[in-house]
């Protein structure tokens, strides 16, 4: 992780669950994080609890379903540091909106900045879609789409001879807040006792992908609970 210390990351969906765990893991590894969330109160509390040698959290209150707010993120980043070195897409809307034929010039600029010599895009997807998780079928189908978009992005960057790496992280069932709510509402019937990962497991996966030697590229990381 040494090469990433002092660098800048952008993490979406940072206020809770997987995004929060990823943000905390990165800043504890001394990486500065632009943390996007609709509610930044938890991020401000996290900042107050971190050791003094941690990276810095820059909370960004934003709704990623709104194009103008996505643009404001990039304007903030370009003003403060020029570009990010790590992009963790933890929100489906951010990924599909960002890759969709490039509605945002700022998004394209972030990928094509001439002075970006290397970087890493990490998309949080999910393990192979299992239709028996009825309450998660829409989410599962969407994640399958984002997995395909991740492969397409990796190919496009390779065609441009870009040094930016792309990784798809595909965890199995995660005991996130949304999954807990679905269980409470009986929308995951038959899976009440299924083993589940916790959010920290996914964050550890992100840190592992970033920690491998620079000559190694992990294109996809899949794991599940037992």
From TrEMBL:
Give the keywords, sorted. Oxidoreductase
Question: Is RNA-binding tagged as a keyword?
Answer: no
Write down what this protein is called.
Answer: Dehydrogenase/reductase SDR family member 11
Q: Name the PANTHER family on file.
A: DEHYDROGENASE/REDUCTASE SDR FAMILY MEMBER 11, DEHYDROGENASE_REDUCTASE SDR FAMILY MEMBER 11
Q: Does the keyword Protease apply?
A: no
Q: Which organism encodes this protein?
A: Hypsibius exemplaris (Freshwater tardigrade)
**Protein family per UniProt:** Belongs to the short-chain dehydrogenases/reductases (SDR) family.
Q: Name one GO molecular function term.
A: oxidoreductase activity
């Amino acid at each position: 992780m040494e090469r990433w210390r002092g660098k800048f990351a952008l993490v979406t969906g940072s206020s809770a669950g997987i995004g929060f765990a990823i943000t905390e893991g990165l800043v504890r590894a001394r990486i500065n994080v632009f943390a996007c969330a609709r509610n930044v109160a938890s991020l401000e509390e996290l900042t107050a609890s971190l050791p003094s040698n941690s990276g810095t959290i820059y909370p960004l209150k934003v709704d990623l379903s709104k194009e103008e707010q996505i643009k404001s993120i990039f304007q903030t980043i370009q003003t403060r540091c020029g570009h990010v070195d790590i992009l963790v897409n933890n929100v489906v809307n951010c990924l599909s909106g960002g890759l969709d034929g490039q509605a945002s010039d700022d998004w394209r600029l972030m990928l094509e900045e001439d002075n970006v010599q290397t970087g890493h895009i990490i998309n949080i997807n999910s393990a192979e879609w299992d239709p028996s998780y009825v309450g998660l079928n829409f989410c599962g189908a969407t994640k399958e789409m984002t997995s395909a978009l991740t492969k397409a992005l990796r190919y496009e960057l390779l065609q441009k001879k870009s040094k930016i790496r792309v990784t798809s992280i595909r965890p199995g069932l995660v005991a996130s807040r949304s999954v807990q709510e679905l269980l409470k509402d009986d929308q995951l019937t038959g899976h009440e006792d299924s083993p589940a990962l916790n959010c920290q497991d996914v964050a550890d996966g992100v840190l592992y992908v970033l920690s491998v030697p620079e000559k190694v590229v992990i294109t996809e990381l899949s794991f599940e609970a037992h």
